[in-house]
Amino acid sequence: MIQAFEFEDGGRTFKCSAEAPRKARAESWWWFGVSGDNNRYAPFQTAPDDTQASVRSRVIAYYV
């Protein structure tokens, strides 16, 4: 699994991290926060073939 990372898009900074669930045997999810937005989002699970580019693409598609 890739480490937490940040990227910029459209003048905003996105901070992404994969986090393990609090319940046993559940999958990890990608969480992200966006500058200027007080919310955090977890729209999709991690995958073995995730890359920064693939996660970034999914985050942008979800948020924009």
Task: Outline the structure in words.
With 64 residues, this protein is an alpha+beta fold. 19% of the residues lie in helices and 44% in strands. The chain is built from one helix and four strands; from the N terminus they run E-E-E-E-H. The protein has a four-stranded antiparallel sheet, covered by helices on one side. The longest helix is centred in the last third of the chain and has 12 residues, at 52-63. The model has no long low-confidence stretch (mean pLDDT 93).
Tag the structure with descriptive keywords.
single chain, 64 residues, alpha+beta, 1 helix
Shape, principal axes of CA atoms: globular
Tell me the span between the first and last alpha carbons: 25 Å
* Portion of residues within helices: 10-25%
Number of strand segments: 4
The ordered string of helix (H) and strand (E) elements is EEEEH
> Biggest sheet: strands, sense, closure?
4 strands, antiparallel
- Beta strand %: 35-45%
Q: Using the CA coordinates, give the radius of gyration.
A: 12 Å
Tally of contiguous helical segments:
1
pLDDT averaged over residues: 93
Order of adjacent strands in the largest pleated sheet: 1-2-3-4
Reconstruct the topology from this structure:
Blueprint: E1 5-9, E2 12-19, E3 29-34, E4 37-45, H1 52-63
Antiparallel strand pairs: 1-2, 2-3, 3-4
Provide a compact summary of the structure:
This protein is of the alpha+beta class and 64 residues long. Helix content is 19%, strand content 44%. It is globular, with a radius of gyration of 12 Å.
